[in-house]
Amino acid sequence: MKRSIDKWYKTKKLLLDRNLRSYIPNTKRMNKKTLHSMLKQYGMVYVKPNTGSQGRGVIRVDRVNGRKGTSWKYQSGSSVHRFSSYRNAYRSLHKAADGKPYLIQKGIRMLRYRSRPFDFRIVVQKKPRSPWKVTGMAARLAHPAKIVTNGSQGGTIYSVSGLLSKKLKPRSVRRLTRQMEQMGLQTAARLHRTFPKLWEIGLDVAVDTSLHPWILEVNSKPDPCPFAQLNDPSMLREMIRYGKANGRTYKLHCKKSHKGGF
């Protein structure tokens, strides 16, 4: 099976599942008209390459209503660009996309810790002739100067319970963790119907300020490096066992992510 499946195709397949539909942010192919419409509707969106991983190429775009009228800005990496006209903003974005197909996704106002957004990586795997299992869950806190949480972009890795407990009561932590696990299993099962050779996924989940979880992205070859930063090595060991059962080997040269602690 081709390991890199484009994001638009995966999104369409997940939308076929009525149990997953409410977890998928409104997503469109990017063009000038659609971006303008979604910015008017949501105020903030993320645009991302239709292919690729590790947070590369992800851009946050904002429509700003001020006393002097409407302006636009976008952040790519740690650089922020501001514009007084939508025409100029889109021209700059289109240039940044370098001719590659991009998607627009409704912006999720994520939970934050120390003013930095965080999300979650859920790894779901299966061995030959065995059921799907959640083998790893980790929380990822964005680098202070960036919009993406990926460890490869300088994010800090925490245990799910450790970071959530800074924001929520224990009962809410348990409920949300179970909900994300179930989302991971349902997503794997749905994609496996289309891609029968698929045996692992990495699900990126954002939780908004109303505690509603959203599926940001699904990776068909998840990076194990975030789990090397956790104090408990059991998840990483299990992920590697499942990988070996399917012929995957891992090179754990994990230098960009940071280990979180309280």
Automatic annotation (TrEMBL):
It holds the Pfam family ATPgrasp_YheCD. InterPro entries: YheC/D (IPR026838). This is YheC/YheD family protein. It comes from Paenibacillus protaetiae. The lineage of its organism: Bacteria, Bacillati, Bacillota, Bacilli, Bacillales.
